[in-house]
Amino acid sequence: MIYQREKVLNDILFFFFALFVFSSAFSIAISQISLGISLFLFIVIIIIKHYQPFQASLRWVYIFIGLYIFWMLVAALAGKTPLKSVLMIKEEWLFLIIPIGIYLFNKENYRQKLIIALAIGVGLISFYGILQHFIGLHWFKSKPLYPAFDYGYRSQGTFSHPLTFGNYYATASAFFCAYLTYGWRSFSAQKRIYVGVVSLLSVLVTLFSYSRGSILGLLVALFVLGVITGKKKIIASFVILLMLSAIIVAVVPKVKNHIIVNTAKEINIYNEAGRFFIWDKSLKIIRHHPIFGVGQGNFYYEYLSYLRKDIPDYRKLTHAHDDFLNIAAISGIPGMIFFIGMWLAVFVYLGKGIINGKSEGNSNWYLGAAFIASVAFLITSITEATFADEEVRQLLMFIWAVGLWQQYSVFEKKTGTERFIKSKNS
């Protein structure tokens, strides 16, 4: 009876969490409602099963996440608008995706289905995004698509901006490309086909977003994938892609002019639209608020104080267009240190898992996919505050769960063996 009750709860939790994963590709509303229900069900399961979600085997990830959230709270209370800032920290609940995902991934009958849920969502919206690029299809939106600088339109799916869309799909395409590369020899022909199709569609739609940071993130991730897996074909494809890009830039005047103009704009410290200008002003905010920052939600007002009074509204920004500078500005340098520590901890766990998996002959496709997708996300964070973008961040949290669940699984197996030995000896 108890087993049946737990199985029903697990199945319901899986359904809503799979809905969250699937809908994250196109709807922040549906994904977060289903995530909220998943969280409630997960808490019920924790109480009933006495399940420990924050296991010691992942302690450094959870320690740095805890320190990061704690310092965000301290910085919020120390700022000019403590109540507003504290309320805005509620977005950090997305970290809870990690323990929920780890719990479900430790159950073999849910593991592959969650990947399929993400693949279906990403594949469908990638196809829709390709149609957007060529024919301007834009369902359920009153605002027209942004025109591409050479031909067609910038793909943005159902998201509010091509940049958010590009960052999400750069991360997702890096994930599926790595998933396919690591699992190629072990996957069935059918699985190779569907993962390959999703990989191709998501790569194309990332390119059609025309978001430079997203495209750069994907290219760097694919290059890293080729290097660490020793796949000469991936590196060759990367080199060919670069050569084709160079030829297109040289031959097509519009592309060449677009790159020259935008590069000049970005590196001009006096251009109010350029990244160097934005980063310069953000560094000034950090210099004047090095310990606690300005508090969540107050970047806009501080940034405004460094701008000319008659600047247009669209130049008044709410973040620093760089995750590390943005976090340092709102929570001080300690907050940024904890944020860096969290990233390092995740990469160390994933890297060790990949190395150990090779030596033990285990499958590495979950670890490898999570590692490469995290690289893509991190590169996009250099020119955009991607971590502050809920649509993309919730994908990253799921991807971290995909990579980290084996660490929890290994711990459970070891402790389970130890308990068996002790009971046998006693």
Question: Can you walk me through this structure?
Answer:
Helix content is 74%, strand content 0%. It has 16 helices and no strands. The protein starts with a helix and ends with a helix. It has helices at residues 2-23, 28-49, 59-78, 82-88, 97-105, 108-135, 162-183, 189-208, 212-229, 232-251, 253-267, 275-288, 299-304, 323-360, 365-383, 390-425. The chain has 426 residues and is an all-alpha fold.
The topology string of helices and strands comes to HHHHHHHHHHHHHHHH
Quote the average pLDDT: 89
User: Spans with pLDDT under 50 lasting ≥5 residues?
Assistant: 416-426
How big is the Rg?
22 Å
> What is the number of strand segments?
0
- Percentage beta strand: under 5%
User: Structural class of the helix and strand makeup?
Assistant: mainly alpha
Largest sheet composition? none
Task: Tell me the layout of helices and strands.
Elements: H1 2-23, H2 28-49, H3 59-78, H4 82-88, H5 97-105, H6 108-135, H7 162-183, H8 189-208, H9 212-229, H10 232-251, H11 253-267, H12 275-288, H13 299-304, H14 323-360, H15 365-383, H16 390-425
Helix pairs in contact: 1-2, 1-6, 3-4, 3-14, 5-16, 6-8, 7-8, 7-9, 7-15, 7-16, 9-10, 9-15, 10-11, 12-14, 14-15, 14-16, 15-16
